UniProtKB/TrEMBL annotation:
<keyword id="KW-0862">Zinc</keyword>
<protein>
    <submittedName>
        <fullName>3-keto-5-aminohexanoate cleavage protein</fullName>
    </submittedName>
</protein>
<dbReference type="InterPro" id="IPR013785">
    <property type="entry name" value="Aldolase_TIM"/>
</dbReference>
<keyword id="KW-0614">Plasmid</keyword>
<keyword id="KW-0479">Metal-binding</keyword>
<dbReference type="Pfam" id="PF05853">
    <property type="entry name" value="BKACE"/>
</dbReference>
<keyword id="KW-0808">Transferase</keyword>
<dbReference type="InterPro" id="IPR008567">
    <property type="entry name" value="BKACE"/>
</dbReference>
Length: 311
């Protein structure tokens, strides 16, 4: 059903899953990340979701000093909402994972609501004859034994420490049980409404991609949170635009970007994150869906405002 409201577009500009060999257009350095973030904001994104990478080899890093140049440039040149990840690799400590969010005190931070183990990612190795960096191949070969932990202790510490500065949490829900985890943390008073729920479809180890799963996740969220949540949808690869469009027509906000897909359309790599934002913006406008500005997104999501951040 179409609703009389505005859709918030988030752009996740680089992430930690894709690697430099997969696309020459994936932003790696702080300068590239900032440039693409600003371009995405100009194209219609109200929120930019940040990860950082080692500028030498593209390896994901939690180091706040690597985040700093990109975040500071985006803050100077755009009014976009800054959203910093609190996820991390299998061996990342809680201190590593929350370091950037503690330093910059952003309006929004992502929060994975349950542990995940990837399945089948080692098969990516066979798709490339050569890798730009040895760590890329090693990353995928190690996938069958890898777990990304998001235990009650990790989530609790993240909420308590990052949330102390008024940062709100975008709760990443990769499966139905993760919605119930949000409800648990709300019940014990750690998460406050309106809850920001991002349902994630099609990532290995999580719920699959089809219309029934989207409807099911929405129905469970309605049952658990009533009118006290704001919904967003993301999906990987070729499913990105289709699932985002479907979600938007059902009342969701949307996320696009090279963290989730390197492609603009079948067989064509995106040259920038701005291209993906412009594409979903144009689709939504054709469907008579209005796009939220950064300040409108702040109001919709109940954010503290950029003046209360340290970016």
């Amino acid at each position: 059903m179409f609703t009389e409201r505005k859709v918030v577009i988030t752009c996740a500009v680089t992430g930690a899953t894709h690697t430099p060999t997969m696309s020459d257009h994936l932003p790696i350095t702080p300068e590239q990340i900032a440039e693409q973030a600003i371009g995405a904001a100009d194209a219609g994104a109200a929120i930019i979701h940040f990860h950082a990478r080692n500028p030498i080899d593209g390896r994901p890093t939690p180091d706040p000093q690597v985040y700093a140049p990109a975040i500071e440039k985006v803050r100077r040149e755009s009014d976009v909402v800054i959203n910093i990840t609190t996820s991390g690799g299998p061996n990342a400590t809680v201190e590593d994972r929350i370091a950037a969010a503690l330093k910059f005190k952003p309006e929004l931070a992502s929060l994975n609501m349950g542990s995940l183990s990837p399945y089948g990612r080692q098969r990516i190795v066979g798709k490339f004859d050569q890798w730009k960096h040895a760590w890329e191949r090693e990353l995928f070969l190690a996938a069958p034994s890898r777990v990304y932990p998001n235990t009650e202790e990790i989530i609790t510490r993240t909420i308590q420490e990052v949330g102390a500065a008024g940062t709100r949490f975008e709760c990443e829900c990769y499966d139905v049980g993760h919605l119930y985890n949000v409800a648990y943390f709300a019940e014990i008073g750690l998460l406050k409404p309106p809850f920001i729920i991002q349902t994630v479809f099609g990532f290995s180890g999580g719920i699959g991609i089809d219309a029934d799963n989207m409807t099911h996740m929405r129905n469970i969220a309605d049952r658990l949170f009533g009118s006290e949540y704001r919904w967003s949808v993301l999906a990987p690869g070729k499913h990105q635009l289709r699932l985002c469009t479907m979600g938007a027509t059902m009342g969701s906000n949307v996320r696009v970007g090279m963290e989730d897909s390197l492609y603009l359309e079948k067989g064509r790599l995106a040259h920038s994150n701005a291209e993906q934002v412009a594409r979903i913006r144009d689709i939504l406008k054709l469907l008579s869906v209005d796009i939220a500005t950064p300040d409108e997104a702040r109001h919709i999501l109940g954010l503290k405002g950029r003046e209360h951040t340290s970016a």
